[in-house]
Amino acid sequence: GVSPVFPYLSMVCVFAFILSFGLGPGGVTNILTTELFTQTTRPAAFMIAGSVNWLSFFFISMVFPFIVIGLQQYCFLVFLVVCSLVATYIFFLIPETKNKTFVEIQNEFQSSNKNKSSSSDGAGTILLSTSI
C-alpha cells in the first residue's frame, strides 16, 4: 500500500517550491522592471509585466495537466526549454544595470535598437538628468 505520509510530503514540497520561487526568481521581474524603466514609464511597465506574469501563471495552470498526460515523467522538460530560452534572451539582449543610471540604461536600449534597425523615424527623445 501507499504510506499515509506521502500526501503530506507532497504538500510540503509544493509549499517549499512556491516559497523558494517567491523568494528567488519570482521577485526578479519586479526588480528588473524598476531598473529598466524611468519614472514616467514605470507604472505602465508594471501593469504590463504584472499582467503578463499572471496570465502566464494562468496559462501554465490550465495547460500543465495536458502536458503531464502527454509527456508523463518528462513533463518538466518543457519548462527546462522555456527557462533556457528566457535565460539566453536575458543574457544577450537585456543590458547590465548595476551602477548605471536610468539614462545610461535607456541609451543602451536605444543604441541596441539602432543597430538592429537601419531606418529611423526621426523622433528623438532627449533626457535631462540633474545630479542631486
TrEMBL record:
PROSITE patterns hit by this protein: MFS
SUPFAM superfamilies in alphabetical order: MFS general substrate transporter
Alphabetically ordered keywords of this record: Membrane, Transmembrane, Transmembrane helix
Major facilitator superfamily (MFS) profile domain location: 1-98
InterPro entries: GLUT, MFS_dom, MFS_sugar_transport-like, MFS_trans_sf
Gene3D superfamilies: MFS general substrate transporter like domains
Cellular compartments annotated: Membrane
PANTHER family hit by this protein: MAJOR FACILITATOR SUPERFAMILY (MFS) PROFILE DOMAIN-CONTAINING PROTEIN, SOLUTE CARRIER FAMILY 2
Name of the featured protein: Major facilitator superfamily (MFS) profile domain-containing protein
Organism: Xenotaenia resolanae
Organism taxonomic ancestry: Eukaryota, Metazoa, Chordata, Craniata, Vertebrata
